[in-house]
Please model this.
Amino acid sequence: MEEYTALDFETNSIPYWTRAHTPARYEHYQPRKPHQIKEFVLQSKRIRTVVSEEARKSGRDVKEVEKEVHLLLEEIGHKFSLPSLRLVGCIAKMAICRMSSGIHINRTGVTRLEELMKKYPVVLLPSHRSYLDFLLVSYFLYEFNLQLPIIAAAQDFMQMSGVGTLLRRSGAFFMRRSFGQDQLYWTVFSEYMQTQLTNGDAPMEFFMEGTRSRTAKPLHPRLGLLSVVMDCFLTGQVADIQLVPISISYERTLEENLFAKELLGIPKPKESTRGLVAARSILSTNYGNMFIHIGEPESLHDYCQQLGISRLPHSVVPRHMPANLSAERAGVKKLAYHMLHIIQANMRLPYTSLVAALLLQRATDDGIFIDELIKEVTWLKQQIERRGGKLMCHCDVMNVADAVKLSVNLLEESVELSASGKVQLCLSHNHQEHIEEQKSFTHVMNMSLSHTHWDMITAISHTHLLLSQYRNQLLHVFSAEGILAMILIKRRTIKCSMYTIQF
Model:
């Protein structure tokens, strides 16, 4: 079993955040500042060609289009500043220390990543279950004196007063949710990414799923950014690029209530500085442990060789002319799902998932005695391990009984332990807040139910949706049984000889 190192929670002093940060860098790196990166993009042949083409198509002056490109780069580009990142890190660490019992990371993955960063351009691909994901990645890189990343972020965060500027100075570069048919924007954005990969300015980080999963099930990958990375390799700008999957697992998810509300139909609140300040109450809540697993890297060079994707077609076409071949598009899609599969397989399953799954199986009962629940969790743990699933291992939790009791405490929003020793589902402690938010939704649905009945349905649904976020984290472990069950449900009766064919 791979060993995990607990990150230091005690040190958050001025010397810690002002210490020298001198990580080993990519061997072909040429130092340049954020404004020099933008200038390089403006002067690239690809951008000059697209500017001329856009001016011809639109009938505008070339200078006018160049000005638009300059504005786009100001909108997109980061302004990385180590002092700004130190400030964000200090605040984030104080918050995480108050909320979390510990952060654990596989040290072999850190050592491997350090060596990769010296020899190759690196793309970090974390899972995306919480807003904490990108903070945790930057935090552990700083902790181990590794090169800090530049991070692709949605433009929603750019609009947050003060916070947007701070994120930009911490290495975030911003992208629109959709590009539509705006070829100029796409070209500028992709050239901005590729020039930094080529020069190895910093490791690049983005979330392939594009957004957080509200159900804890993996989402279908967005292929745009990964295709930019693949194009950078196929056009011969770099000899290789290393993709590093990072799996981040939480005993309790920071946004559990928010996700349950959204699944009930309550609109997602817009990201704002005021909303961030209002959420400070979460600092007094215990969210348990967090596990970070840095997986084995995937070499784009080796991957393309395995699929038979050649760089030769691009060698006879000028780089500023697109040559997007169908085999390459299929390769990007296959690669995206392959990386998501690795990320999912490396997730460490919390005991909260086991407890939630078993309690939802008994949702119509009046609970289960804690001793019986411990026995069932022990059995389910054995089934998960037999199938290659990996559970969280805490240095402070020595047996299953302690883990179950801790999980019941962490699931306080939807689970309670009665005086008689029974563990049972309960209405969320702040379910009245959810009911108030649902009142307008009730009118829209024009329900004939009384408000009392509707309020109760809403509260019960919230509890079930909240627990299902944890249960769903087990689905990939039992996917084979799930597929077989679906076949049996569909066919009703089937000969044994057909199982293998259908499966």
Summary: Residues 441-446 have pLDDT under 50 and may be disordered.
